[in-house]
């Protein structure tokens, strides 16, 4: 298993930026090939944000955040990042990092077996 701990959330004005971090640890972390970010607002379904393959760094983004968010990872420190720029009120949600053992499906939360506790991001006008 792997333990995922998010940090970096907070409140920001529209147009601002935040960087989220997700620290991964545990004896089976080596078995996880891809990590991603999802978000969920009250009353809404969990939404795919971004994903990155751990070994090669191939990235994918949800349409709502494309060209504004950037996912990256430090494969030495085992830290996943999400740089969020040009934030909008619609980005307000709890953001979760997650890990999966596969790479052929990146946007479906059902394929991710490990999840962090989430960190709140609030964007106001």
Features of the shown structure:
mainly beta, seven-stranded mixed sheet, four-stranded antiparallel sheet, 11 strands
Would you give an account of this structure?
- By secondary structure, the protein is mostly beta strands.
- Helices cover 0% and strands 50% of the residues.
- The chain contains no helices and eleven strands.
- It has strands at 3-7, 10-13, 18-25, 34-40, 47-53, 59-61, 69-74, 79-84, 93-100, 114-115, 119-124.
- The strands form two sheets. Strands 2, 4, 5, 6, 9, 10 and 11 form a seven-stranded mixed beta sheet that branches. A four-stranded antiparallel beta sheet has the order 1-3-8-7, with no helix packed on it.
- Strand 4 and strand 5 (47-53) form a beta hairpin.
- The protein is globular and about 40 Å long.
- The chain starts with a strand and ends with a strand.
Number of helices: 0
Sheet of most strands: 7 strands, mixed
How would you state the average pLDDT, rounded?
96
Cα-to-Cα separation, first versus last residue: 40 Å
Q: How much helicity do the residues have?
A: under 10%
- The arrangement of helices and strands along the chain is EEEEEEEEEEE
Task: Classify the beta-strand content into a percent band.
Answer: over 45%
Structural class: mainly beta
Radius of gyration: 13 Å
> Which runs of at least 5 residues are low in confidence (pLDDT < 50)?
none
Total count of strands: 11
Using the alpha-carbon principal axes, give the shape.
globular
């Amino acid at each position: 298993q792997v333990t995922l701990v998010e940090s970096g959330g907070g409140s920001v004005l529209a147009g601002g930026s935040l960087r989220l971090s997700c620290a991964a640890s545990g004896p089976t972390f080596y078995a996880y090939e891809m990590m991603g970010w999802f978000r969920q607002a009250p009353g809404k379904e969990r939404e795919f944000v971004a994903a990155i393959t751990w070994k090669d760094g191939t990235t994918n983004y949800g349409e709502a955040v494309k060209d504004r968010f950037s996912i990256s990872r430090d494969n030495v420190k085992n830290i996943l990042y999400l740089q969020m720029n040009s934030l909008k009120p619609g980005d307000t949600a709890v953001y979760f990092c997650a890990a999966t053992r596969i790479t052929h499906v990146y946007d479906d939360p059902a394929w991710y077996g490990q999840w962090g506790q989430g960190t709140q991001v609030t964007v106001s006008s």
